[in-house]
Each structure stands twice: as C-alpha cells, then as structure tokens.
Amino acid sequence: MIKVLDARFVTTGTAPEHYPPEPIPEVAFVGRSNVGKSSMINALAGRRKLVRVSNTPGRTRALNFFDVDVEWREKKRTVRLCDLPGYGFARVSKVEHAAWEKMITTYLSKRTPLKVVVAIVDAEVGPSEDDLRTLDYLAARAPKVMVVATKIDRVPKAKRKPRLKAIAEALEVPLEVVLPFSSTEKWGLEETWDALLGVLAPA
Ligand code: GDP
Fold this sequence. Notes:
Layout: E1 2-13, E2 26-30, H1 37-45, E3 63-72, E4 75-83, H2 94-110, E5 114-122, H3 129-141, E6 145-150, H4 160-171, E7 178-180, H5 189-200
Bound molecules: guanosine-5'-diphosphate.
C-alpha cells in the first residue's frame, strides 16, 4: 500500500543551474502534448491541481519539479517528479524545437538523481511516430524506462490486454514494462507507484 502524505511544487527551469540541487531520487515524465501527463502527475500526487491541466498544447516549455512524500512499505520517503515539456505540438518553429531538444538531452545526460523515465502513451490511440522516436531515444540515454498507457478507461475492458500487448510490441519493450493507467478513474495508481518506488526507493 502506498500513501501520499504531501506533494509540493519545487521549482521550474530550463538549464542545469536551475535544477534543484538535493540528491532526491527522481522520476521524469515525458509524452506528447495532450497525452494526459499533467493529469497523471496530479493523480499520482493525489492533488487535483499540482500541475495545471490544460488543453493548450505546448504551453509549458520548461522543466517543472515536484516533491512527493509517501509512505510505502511502512517507511516515509520523498521522491522528486520532473515534468518534461510535451513534444509533438504543432506550429513550433525549428528554433523552438531545437531549444526544446537541447533542454531534454541536457537534462537526461546531466541529471544525476534521475533514476527512471516514464514514457506516457495514449492507450486509446496507441503510440505515435513521436512516441516511437522518443522511446528509441530514451532507450539509449535514460537510466531506465517505464511505459504508462493512460486513458485506458477509453478502451473497452475486453480489449485492454491485447491493446497493452500491441503497445509493447510497437515500442519493442517487454509487456511487463507497460502499465495501464487512468487519471479520470484513478486506475493503476497503486501499480504505477509500486513500479516507480521499486526503482526510486528500493528496500
Ligand atoms: P498533458 O498535455 O499531457 O499534460 O495532458 P492533460 O493532463 O492536460 O490532459 C489532456 C486531456 O486529456 C484533458 O482534457 C484531460 O481531461 C484528458 N485526460 C487526461 N487523462 C485522462 C484519462 O486517464 N482518461 C480520460 N478519459 N481522459 C484523460
């Protein structure tokens, strides 16, 4: 059982000098704009508005850091979440895209406390071309990658297992690393936290 005790915004920034310095085990969330990333972070943190949910793709262009205190396996622990700006938004200039890419690559290569990256995909529509590219990219650079398929509530129950299998195959990852999730139904929270904390706060 996991219990969220507290969740708070820490800081926002674009470059290493802005990253919070404490060596708290960190998980980063990445996904295309509108995939449901903000909703997922809010659901995991047990807050409705820790991260602003928006229908304006590409609004946030910086890294946002949050700390969450949890009780897990009878111990209190603090983990840090980093919300990476969504990709694949339309109408951004080449210059903006290059700046975004540099921000992400710098973060992935320099961020020592980063233990795992959650790649979020839409369970209803399946992985996009951008998701496939991101997964390839992460496979080579991230310390560890987990895939969370959100909006699973939009997939009929009987189709959920085959859908997860199809996502795993498309992304060329083992089925065990693809976790079903629904922010609206608060579904998959426990399993996702268990998987995350197994990496972030082992023992
Ligand atoms: P972000 O741009 O990736 O941060 O996505 P948001 O969290 O802002 O969500 C985008 C849209 O998807 C919003 O209209 C949400 O209400 C909706 N949404 C997010 N998560 C879920 C989910 O688990 N199920 C359903 N049905 N809708 C969701």
